[in-house]
Design a protein that fits this description.
Layout: H1 5-36, H2 40-44, H3 58-64, H4 67-99, H5 106-118, H6 123-132, H7 150-161, H8 165-173, H9 178-189, H10 191-206, H11 210-215, H12 224-234, H13 244-249, H14 252-268, H15 271-285
Helix pairs in contact: 1-14, 3-14, 4-7, 4-10, 4-12, 7-10, 7-15, 10-15, 12-14
Length: 289
């Protein structure tokens, strides 16, 4: 393909623009990591930019010896893993029948789901509902009320609409029930959509904060993001065995940056494994409806 002068200019413009956007996202993260690895004097003197000055792992040592960090980390992992599984199960089992024309009342159900996408319930009714269900101060309060996202449901339904009807009809002729069709045929063909929904739900659960503040009072059940907020805004650390000499080398800003890195790295590690399916799922799911 012979590229015209206009195409070349457009490609150069695209590369520059995407490079600027990429740097605007990567450089702050590098700066945070550099601060988390620098000592107190360098941070207070403003010498830290994109490379650690006065290298020290003291901030990470202090954080990893704080038991409340591990409690929050444990709760966030539980919420992310089990909450995402619940999301995928509920979303697929509802999106599949809504994508097949032979099911009754699907249009009425779609209208009701669309209504929740436009108008969401305010905080107080949600809180009263969670309280009446006995979910306050439990991790279920951070998973069950968000079991289905209306937006993700429509994306998943759009993906199911692209599956050939003849394939499902042939499975029915061979004697497959609807659950077996969904489990053995539809879901194996829907890996890109499942990966996309999974990562969107998982990121939402990992970053869940507001609901935890409203529904969780017990210290043993707060997620990592709530503990992170306490450290960042109030400089409160738990009991640790770090020596006083090491504490003198640490800066509160460096400790905050280290906490941000610890809370961000786990969910970043998920992206490389799901990136291929994530891109395919978003493209296919956005083609129809």
């Amino acid at each position: 393909m012979i590229m015209t002068r206009g195409h070349k200019i457009f490609n150069v413009f695209n590369i520059i623009l995407l490079g600027i956007i990429g740097l605007s996202m990567v450089l702050p993260l590098i700066h945070i990591i550099a601060q988390s690895l620098s000592n107190n004097a360098a941070i207070n003197a403003g010498k830290v930019s994109l490379w650690p000055v006065g290298f020290t792992l003291g901030s990470y040592k202090l954080i990893l010896q704080d038991p409340t960090i591990w409690i929050g980390f444990r709760n966030s992992v539980i919420i992310t893993v089990f909450g995402t599984l619940i999301n995928l199960f509920m979303t697929t089992t509802l999106a599949y029948p809504l994508s097949r024309p032979e099911y009754l009342f699907r249009k009425s159900i779609l209208v009701m789901v669309l209504f929740t996408l436009i108008f969401s319930a305010p905080l107080i009714p949600n809180y009263l509902l969670v309280k009446q269900l006995g979910l306050l101060n439990t991790l279920w309060a951070l998973m069950l009320p968000m079991a289905i996202s209306a937006f993700n449901l429509f994306v998943m339904r759009s993906f199911f609409l692209n599956l050939p009807t003849e394939l499902l009809d042939s499975a029915r002729i061979d004697g497959c029930g609807e659950f077996r069709i969904l489990w053995n045929i539809v879901l194996p063909l829907s890996k890109p959509a499942m990966a996309t929904m999974g990562i969107m739900y998982a990121v939402g659960h990992w970053n869940r904060y507001a609901e935890a503040v409203f529904y969780i009072d017990h210290r043993n059940w707060i997620p990592l993001q709530v503990r992170l907020r306490e450290i960042v805004f109030t400089d409160q650390m738990g009991q640790s065995d770090v020596s006083s000499e090491l504490m003198l080398l640490l800066s509160p800003e460096g400790i905050k940056m280290a906490v941000i890195v610890v809370a961000t790295i786990p969910i970043l590690c998920v992206y490389p494994f799901l990136q291929k399916h994530f891109i395919q799922g978003m493209m296919v799911g956005s083609v129809k409806s």
